[in-house]
Amino acid sequence: MKRVAIIYGGWSSEREISLISGAKMAEAAREIGYDVVEIDASRTLAQKLVEADPDIILNGLHGPWGEDGCVQGLFEVLDIPYSHSGVLASALAMDKIKSKLVFAEAGLDVAKDVAVTREQVATGHPLVPPYVVKPVNEGSSFGVLFVREGSNGPARDVLGPDWHYGDDLMAEEFIPGRELTVGVLGDRALAVTEITTLREFYDFNAKYTDGGSRHVIPADIPETIAEAAKTAALTAHQVLGCRGVTRSDFRYDPDKDRLVILETNTQPGMTPFSLVPEQANYCGMSYAALVEWMIEDASCRR
Question: Which of 5, 78, 188, 274 is the 20 to 30 Å CA partner of 181?
Answer without folding.
Answer: 5
